[in-house]
Design a protein that fits this description.
This protein has about 250 residues and is α/β, with parallel strands linked by helices. It contains 11 helices and 7 strands.
Length: about 250
């Protein structure tokens, strides 16, 4: 009787150990699958000098459009930012420079589904150019090889609305003088206030186009590069309601 009891206990122990080993194996396989899946869809790559040089301005525009479509459809690329940081530490070869507003609701790299080292981004309320930003654009294109200058405004822009209403407040007052020409340049018969979304939208577009003209007029370097087909200078407006970038072409 005693030996039968011992046999039963031994059998139970063996079955328990077998079950534990099987569960451990299953968990490990599951973890491996998850890791492998992550690797297959993630990207730690950064643009190389050769890849940047091979791009044309039109190809960069198309890449930005494709990235924006992924952003809209919640189909963003999974990126290994730690690896990108390491790979881009010694050099950078961005595709474009984007002049954007400081608005926190306009995450420029995400809007185009791009990662570390893909874009130069200059930001100022109302996305207008000045000497410092022109110098930054010249550095991005003439020195660092970017193929596109994109001036990107956005809907519901506080700076545009403030310029429309001619707000007076501290250093905001002189800043808004950079946007006032766009307000005054819009031909419109209706209500010319920040309460009128149609007028605000028209001023936002006019401001983008005016600043493209400013770039060409005040940067002989960028103008010559555009004339030679080395870069393009273009504009767009980001729609906060749906995430879409509308290109002004």
């Amino acid at each position: 009787m005693n030996w039968k009891f011992k046999l039963l206990v031994l059998s139970a122990v063996i079955l328990s150990l077998t079950a534990c080993n099987q569960e451990k194996k299953t968990n490990e396989e599951s973890e491996n699958i998850q890791v492998n899946d992550s690797v297959s869809v993630s990207s730690g790559d950064v643009l190389t000098k050769e890849e940047q040089e091979a791009l044309t301005p039109d190809e960069v525009i198309e890449l930005l459009k494709e990235g924006n479509n992924r952003f809209i459809n919640d189909d963003m690329t999974v990126r290994n930012h730690t690896e990108q940081i390491r790979k881009s530490a010694k050099a950078q070869y961005p595709k474009a420079i984007v002049l954007s507003c400081v608005d926190s609701r306009v995450p420029v790299e995400d809007v185009f589904d791009l990662g570390i080292g893909d874009l130069f981004v200059a930001r100022v309320a109302g996305n207008f150019v000045n000497e410092d930003i022109l110098g930054s654009m010249e550095f991005a294109c003439k020195v660092s090889g970017s193929k596109l200058v994109l001036v990107m405004g956005h809907e519901h822009c506080g700076a545009i609305k403030a310029a429309v209403d001619d707000v007076k407040l501290g250093n905001i007052t002189p800043m808004l003088q950079n946007i006032r020409p766009a307000v005054e340049g819009v031909k419109y018969e209706g209500e010319r206030s920040s309460e009128n979304q149609e007028f605000v939208h028209m001023v936002a577009e006019r401001n983008v186009l005016d600043n493209i003209d400013e770039i060409r007029d005040n940067s002989p370097i960028l103008k010559e590069m555009e004339d030679n087909g080395e870069i393009k200078i273009v504009g767009a407006v980001y729609d906060m309601d749906n995430g879409k970038v509308d290109w002004l072409e």
